[in-house]
Amino acid sequence: MGSKKRGSSAAEEVENQLDTGTDKGVLESSKKKMKKEKKKEVADGSASPSSTSAGKVVENQVDAGTDKGVSESLKKKRKKEKKKEVAEGSAASSSATQSITPMERRKKRKALDKERHHSDSDESGAKHEPSGLKVEESHETRVPVATSPSSLPEFHISVFKDLASADATVREAAVESLVVELRKVQTAYGKLEKKELLEGGLQLEAEKDDGLNDCALSLRYAIRRLIRGVSSSRECARQGFALGLTVLVGAIPCIKIDALLKLTVDLLEVSSSMKGQEVRDCLLGRLFAYGAIARSGRLTEEWVYDQKSPSIKEFTGSLISLAAKKRYLQEPAVSVILDLVEKLPVEILLNHVLETPGLQEWFKGANEIGNVDALHLALKMREKISVNSKVFGKLLPDPYSPSGLFSADHLSSLANCLKDSTFCQPRVHSVWPVLVNILLLDMILPAIDSTSGLNSIKKHKKNRKCSSSEEEIQKNLQCFCEVIIEGCLLLSSHDRKHLAFDVMLLLLPRLPTSCIPIVLSYKLVQCLVDILSTKDSWLYKVAQYFLNQLSNWVKHDDVRRVAVIVALQKHSNGRFDCITRTKTVKDLMGEFKTESGSMLFIQNLINMFLDEGHASEEPSDQSQTTDDNSEIGSVEDKDSVGTMGTSDFLKSWVIDSLPSVLKHLQLDPEAKFRVQKEVLKFLAIQGVFSSSLGTEITSFELQEKFRWPKAAISSALCRMCIEQVQLLLANAQKGDHLVTSGLETSDLGSYFMRFLSTLSNIPSVSLFRALSDEDEKAFKKLQAMETRLSREERNCGLSADANKLHALRYLLIQLVLQVLLRPGEFSEAASELIICCKKAFATPDLLDSSGEDDADGDETPALMDVLVDTLLSLLPQSSAPMRSAIEQVFKYFCNDVTDDGLLRMLRVIKKDLKPARHQDRDSEDNDDDDDEDLLGIEEAEESDEAETGETGESDGQTDDSEAVVGVEAVNKELPEGSDDSDGGMDDDAMFRMDTYLSRILKERKNLAGGETAHSQLVLFKLRVLSLLEIYLHESPGKPQVLKVYSNLAQAFVSPHTAEGSEQLGQRIWGILQKKIFKAKDYPRGETVQLSMLEPLLEKNLRLASKPFKKKKSVVNPSKKKQSASWSRHKMITSLAQQSTFWILKIIEARKFPESELQRVLDIFQDALETYFDSKKFQMKSEFLKEIVRRRPWIGHHIFEFLLDKCCSSKSEFRRVEALDLVIEILKSLVSVTANDSGRAASKKTLKSHLPKLCHVIKELVTNMPEKQSRRAEVRKFCSRVFQIITSLNLSEPFLQDLEPNAHTACETQLGDAFLALKKVER
């Protein structure tokens, strides 16, 4: 009940004496005495073998009179028993020393001392009485509870120990045993005629008049013991003893209620000498005792027996008096009264309970002092009696009604009471569930099934017109939330804010959906936002728990979910997740799975956007940003949103959220298309058009009404709407698979263009911005061309041309929107694209135009060259959806790309915007420049940033980073005198490259941001890389792949790539690895000539052997830079090695004649020669071994050359290192496990090389290395050669070819290995 345990020794003594340890010494001594007496009786023959009751012993002693012999024997017996008790006590204490603490030992010692003192006083008082009576009194004093006098049944005192058990079943069993035994005792006691013989002596603490005269001594003792036990805080003593008292009082009618009340006060009286814990235990004990009496049902029975009985008034008065003593006793005291009230009829409540002295004063002063328990009692009693009464004072309205109770004035008068209910936290006070039941009495909602979202929406639509009772409930709830929740609790302390959230959770299970906006008010949402914005907040976990419960409550109901999302975002200006750093709104939005739920949410978002009264009361805060879960297309737009007023934040969130509804929907295509149309129409209306005649128009063709906000939205919001339309169309295009005949009914792009045309023809509707003549002309041409391509697409059916037409149509649609977004920038590209469309699909319909677009006949460039140029010109300033459309077009046209078009793309990758103006020309830097020229590099690029992502296999997949960074602008000026090295370009290519760069510079001037021109160039390169990746994915076996590989490798090796942008290098590396080296196909066909492959092979071998060098110009480079340089060197070496393997695979696949392969073999011989002669040649022997292992024919042709170099090499290290390569070639040259013909061929081949092998071994053993490790390598090589020779039975020829001095050297250096070979020869 809120009491806390204290560790004082006095409290522990009270615990032990009052709970289950009281009279422990008495009980033990009395049991021992009775056992000793029984044994003596059996020995004397005065008792039967079975257990004899103590009553018979007492009768025999009384009949014997005052016989001195008997009294003396009893005295001696008592002395012996005392001695034995002392001995047993000491033995017991010694045996229990290990299991009890020193404090418990002191307690038991004190109890034994007290018992001995008590028994001694009994003996001294009994000397003046007759001996027979003295014996009877002595036994009555010590053993009344163990065995009853005369013929009374036995009562086992051990049950009291089990009442304090923590196990509820043990406590219940103990109570049952206690009541059963005491009922038997009381029944037998009631049948006795001479009760005065039992009551005439000392009556076990019954000296005073306790009112229990009709009860047996054991029963009286048990009642006292139970009353004392409820005051104990040890384990579960209060629960167990209170249960025992409840059942006992209800089971034995002779126990008087007035006596119990008096005995409770007497036994648990609080004295001035008691300390805090002792006082608390006594008061709580009285509370539990009163609760036991109330639950026993005896008060009702007494009233039925005697309706004038004052017991109920006395009982209620005692509880009111007890509640006034301590604050923590009020609520449980009221709970006890309410337990009684539930059992009593209305008549008793009116005439007895309400007339209790002090109760009316309690009610009258409750408002001023803030007595919430008085309010709780008044509400429950008013619910029971259902009549108006002035007894409740100002707590309840008179006449009473729910609307009167929840009126603003009356709630204000109850504010003090309700604010005071926080004292019992973290538990919620009992008055709040009562108030919630009254507030939402008729709103018991059925359980919601996860499949009932649609039914819930239908019910929501039917019940939009609220009944009068629901309107009253909404009014009452409004007053309750405004006055109590917002006015009293949320504006107060942390405890009261905690209480406010707890009360909200009580409301949720029965809260109708129409009341969600009332409960989730502005102040409550702002309180949540304030708390969750700081993790160190004291209420952070409370707010988190509230949000979790709220999310669970709306989990399976779309109507609730919509209302909660709208409330949270409306009162936080669309930034709830952003400020609170949670994903609450995002997760709720992701739970829409049905068409009906999505449509309902979309409609609510539209209403929120158009509603002018949605603006929250929150003051403007320019530092706040939009929700971080929003998907805005570019940094420009984020900046523009950042400059919006506070009222536009919510609108921007609505614009971002509408397309995101489609992400998690798992609908059939038709249902998803309907949802897409709703989103598309709203975004197009708000972003593309404006109305000159009011805020609402009707389209008779579309049979729909369209609305705009009363105040025109900003241009930034219009741009956001158009960008979301672009994103929606791009996602719809990715979801398209096959084009069907019913194009208008299933194609979102076609629907948008028809919608755009229809709205444009309404006189009162115009575009949101005026276009220039060129843009307007391009705008109309794009619309017309899209219409023609759409018609042509329907005619193509499911052919390959249909995919091309579909991709071109979506690119035209994106261009239409780009013209609106960025006027003056796309009109030229639009004209070029229209020309490409006409030439790509040369039908009379598409060619029916004026000759302004026609070019001179012979000088007309190829269609694909024009298309590639157009696509490249669109890339620098394109948005993410635009790039996706460009990639889709390129995907379906890339098989027709010419070599010139491919070279234009590759030149972009190699282009450098600003090469270094001053270059050091020392030897080291010249070596670095050699790296650049190694693969024929013409230019190098330098960049700062890059974007990541791959597009090859994902049909138009674009980078999220590009969507943000791709249109960021630059502030820094270009350095003067930028001089590009444009070797290898003709005039036409130079002109086109200048065009691309001019677009980048124009982009730089138009956009605001911190990006440099180099970062813009890097973005352009990465977008071109996406196109090249698509090309490699669609055409992996074309000979042009070699050209792409060569240029990408050049760009990767260039030092400017590493210095300018690490991510650009990583992207090129990824394309080389995934799309070239590890591709399933590779360049094939007659067009792949050795003349193309040989230079690449030679350059890669040189690159693989380049040493790692530090630049002299760098003084004391940091470890980080050194590590980066070393990592890049390893990547370049790895690139060269993998390139070599890939080129050799292509050469072997072509199956060139051996005569044509001589140049390839010469390249390897030259590499080997340089390997042996030059220390700067750092080619790894493992790389050479891998070449021989993969392409054995190379090893066979260079074997003799390798043996010669092993003999003549001046480098001891290289000679020893090459031995592994010799063994690797030998393993592929001969086969010791082949069949007879194979072994014969191997033997013949090896025999032809035996002289040179002998010469190599001679040189090795006669010039053994000095280092131990190298000598070991030589011995290992010789042993393996001997094994091969032995396995092919060539020992004799080998020994014959070996010179005599070599024999001696072999025996000296090789020992057993060579001797074994000679033995085999013999």
Describe the structure.
It is found in: Nucleus. Belongs to the MYBBP1A family. Residues 21-31, 65-74, 112-142 have a biased composition (Basic and acidic residues). With 1322 residues, the chain is mainly alpha-helical. Strands 1-4 form a two-stranded antiparallel ribbon. It has a two-stranded antiparallel ribbon with strand order 2-3. Helix 41 packs antiparallel against helix 42 and helix 55 (1090-1104) packs antiparallel against helix 56.
Shape, principal axes of CA atoms: flat
Segments where pLDDT lies below 50 for 5+ residues? 1-99, 120-150, 200-207, 445-455, 461-465, 614-644, 737-743, 847-858, 916-934, 936-987, 1004-1010
Number of helices in the DSSP assignment: 65
Structural class: mainly alpha
Query: How many β-strands, per DSSP?
Result: 4
The first-to-last residue Cα distance is 106 Å
Residues in β-strands, percent: under 5%
What Rg is obtained from the alpha carbons, in whole angstroms? 51 Å
Arrangement of strands in the largest sheet: 1-4
List the defining traits of the structure above:
disordered N terminus, mainly alpha, flat, two-stranded antiparallel sheet, single chain, 1322 residues, 65 helices
